[in-house]
Amino acid sequence: MSKTVLYARVSTADQTLEHQRKQAEAAGFKIDQVVADHGVSGVSTKLAERSEGKRLFDILRPGDTLVVRWVDRLGRDYRDVSDSIRHFMRDGVVIKTVINGMVFDGATTDPIQQAVRDALIAFMAATAEAQAVATKEAQKAGIELAKVHPKKGAPAYRGRKPSYDREVFEKVTAMLDMDAGASAIAKETGLTRQTVLRIREERAGAEKALASWGM
After folding, report:
1. Is 11 an annotated catalytic residue?
2. Where are the domains of the chain?
3. In this structure, what DSSP letter does residue 15 have?
4. Catalytic residue among 2, 11, 41, 51
5. CATH architecture of 4-125
């Protein structure tokens, strides 16, 4: 029996899982299963490498429908999004978006429809990556401006508040010093694997961020 699976990637406070599910249901989708990743970058982490995203490749079967709010929930890397959509289509899975009601179906046999579909996939995947790049550049520009010209009375720019406290940070660093793997540390501390990797690569920066927030 075919099923409809909603995949949600929750990366900011205004992209809650409940919000994405309600949007899908309001659009007429009857959701049988929800798969969600929290706090995972759609730029640096491929769908198949996310703790929950990779489950899609195991649970989706021919005839199933994969629902996403928009293609940027699958990712913000052009090649990853394109490859993921085409992988699912080859497996007989139909991908549908809540926004704009787009449908990507590998069962299409008409060459003209295939060409239009493939061009649309490429366009939407490229748009998702372009939006990510534009957002990152805007944030960078805003941060640099705040550093050079802080508003009167405004506190000094401290960057994003760490998602962990000092106790968790010290536990992570201790496990890293014992050569524990990122996945094992993430499971033990409740952090995402990406957060653990950031601490590993920029331990001094993580320490500085905790200090700047008085943690």
Report:
1. yes
2. 4-125, 166-212
3. S
4. 11
5. 3-Layer(aba) Sandwich (3.40)
